[in-house]
Amino acid sequence: MDALLHRGLKEGNRHRHHYRPRGRRVRHGQQAAVVRALTAAKPYIDGAAPSFVAAAAMCGSCPQYVEAAFTLTKSGDAALLRDVVRGETPLLAAAKRVRELVALVDAYHRAKDKPHALARFGQTIGAEILFDSVITPAI
User: Fold this and answer.
1) Which of 7, 61, 63, 130 could form an S-S bond across to 36 if both were Cys, CB 3.0 to 4.6 Å?
2) Nearest to residue 89, comparing CAs of 28, 31, 23?
3) Domain ranges for the chain
4) What is the torsional sign of CA 128, 133, 136, 139?
5) d(CA 104, CA 79)
6) What is the DSSP string of 16-83?
7) How far, in Å, CA of 105 to CA of 101, rounded?
8) How many CB atoms lie within 10 A of CB 89?
9) What are 56-67's pLDDT values in tens digits?
10) How far apart (Å, rounded) are the C-alpha atoms in residues 83 and 29?
11) pTM of structure
């Protein structure tokens, strides 16, 4: 009985089939999955797709990639976007890297029409800290 069990395990590993991926991963020097995700992010931004899931279904992508493409697009970092499209930087890692920046920019855009909110923010953080941590590094 033991001989039959062991024989099946040994022979089961011998005849593996190696399949090629169904589609090409790179087209014209661009990562196909990233291009699909960026394409799906556009209807979401324009309001034609109500969610990342719907946008992903429209373009043959997955919701996580569409959300990452959306975040990366909102960051405005063209060099990082170019690196992601070329495959030099993974999409999810790039989105994670700029997520906090996007959140800060969104918060600023929501508050810029409310001068009292910006003034209170400056008072809370402190003008010196704000200048030293935000403005000086940008110069």
Assistant:
1) 61
2) 31
3) 19-138
4) negative
5) 20
6) ------SS-SEETTEEHHHHHHHHHHHHHHHTSSSSHHHHHHHHT--HHHHHHHHHHHHHT-HHHHHH
7) 6
8) 18
9) 999 999 999 999
10) 11
11) 0.72
